Amino acid sequence: MTKRALITGITGQDGSYLAELLLSKGYEVHGLVRRSSSFNRGRIDPISEADPEAGKRLHLHYGDMTDGVSLVNLVRTIEPHEVYNLAAQSHVKVSFEMPEYTASADAIGTVRLLEAIRSANLECRFYQASTSEMFGATPPPQGESTAFYPRSPYGAAKLYAHWVTVNYREAYDMFAVSGILFNHESPRRGETFVTRKITMAVARIAAGLQDELVLGNLDAVRDWGYAKEYVEGMWRMLQHDAPETFVLGTGVGTSVREFCQTSFEHVGLDWQKYVTHDDRYERPTEVDALIADPSKSRDVLGWEAKTHATDLARLMVDADVEALVTER
Ligand code: NAP
Ligand code: F7E
């Protein structure tokens, strides 16, 4: 039997890696895309170009997490065996500027999708893209039983989505999994997240196209892993024999400053000559340190992060240098 998966957020970083993974496993993959005035499929178009056979099993549908009817219709039409809810307004700083929209897409959007599945009476496994931002002010290491203390409208919205996922698991016996993922990056990372902002700037500075990089808080510590490895963890969570909550991370903390230093050093530059500060990139409330305790995923799922921050910074710089060469 061919398994059908529905991915919300398929045009994003994780959605594109997950679509590739599921197609490589023989799945029929359906993706929810939202309408925009110009095409926004740069991360998923290469999938069909690289493998036209797999591309025939990839289907895109218009919808939106803020439009419940579109979710109901989609779930009923596709009858998926697995749903991966990756769609979100995922930028923490932006969530302070758009708190209500962030809550609608990230929190209420999740319950809209869960209700769409429940009301369709489907035997369907559900993955919720939860986040280490839910731990917020609670000091590391953070694992499945660590107390939550979100520090942004994004973190608070995702915490609702996490708990409603747990509630649907308990109330309706749904196979609903919450994957609490620490920061994961890649050459496909959105350009306004700090790692990608740094690696793109390094490539441009090395090429003589830019002369400074303006950042906010350099002291923040994050547990940065490689997105391509994390989507394998999501899939394993849905193949496990019981629906549970799992943390994915490397277990290693790195500051923004250290990530900068590694990235600039990789092209032979001294970061201190180029990086300046502007308050505009600071947040009203910051999350100082996120470092995972990923032992449950290692012991139960056999999942372990292989790429840590230093290698990640280097691979992202290499990809951005290469992209500039191709562009020129
Ligand atoms: P991303 O690159 O920002 O992708 C977000 C996706 O959600 C995009 O496909 C976006 O579509 C879609 N989307 C946004 N609002 C939507 C709406 N109202 N209706 C339908 N689709 C909408 O995020 P990511 O890094 O891949 O992360 C995937 C998920 O994991 C997100 O839920 C994020 O919050 C969560 N997460 C991420 C990390 C991380 O470090 N990357 C860690 C923990 C959890 P457009 O392309 O049209 O914008
Ligand atoms: O910030 C600091 C900033 O925006 C990381 C999302 O995927 O991971 C991500 O959220 C740190 C913060 O990621 C700049 O203050 C300094 O302390 O790359 P970021 P994030 O906020 O950790 C979690 C797990 C998610 O779930 C989210 O969806 O870097 N920082 N200077 C800066 N951050 C940005 N963006 N830009 C700067 O100039």
TrEMBL record:
Lineage top rank: taxon: Bacteria
Gene3D superfamilies xref list: NAD(P)-binding Rossmann-like Domain, UDP-galactose 4-epimerase, domain 1
The enzyme's E.C. designation: 4.2.1.47
Keywords: Lyase, NADP
Residue ranges of every copy of the NAD(P)-binding domain listed in the record: 6-316
GO molecular function annotation: GDP-mannose 4,6-dehydratase activity
Cofactor(s) for this UniProt protein: NADP(+)
Reaction(s) this enzyme catalyzes, per UniProt: GDP-alpha-D-mannose = GDP-4-dehydro-alpha-D-rhamnose + H2O
Principal EC category: lyase
Its biological purpose: Catalyzes the conversion of GDP-D-mannose to GDP-4-dehydro-6-deoxy-D-mannose.
Family statement drawn from the similarity comment of this UniProt entry: Belongs to the NAD(P)-dependent epimerase/dehydratase family. GDP-mannose 4,6-dehydratase subfamily.
Name of the molecule in the record: GDP-mannose 4,6-dehydratase
Native source organism of the sequence: Aeromicrobium panaciterrae
Lineage: Bacteria, Bacillati, Actinomycetota, Actinomycetes, Propionibacteriales
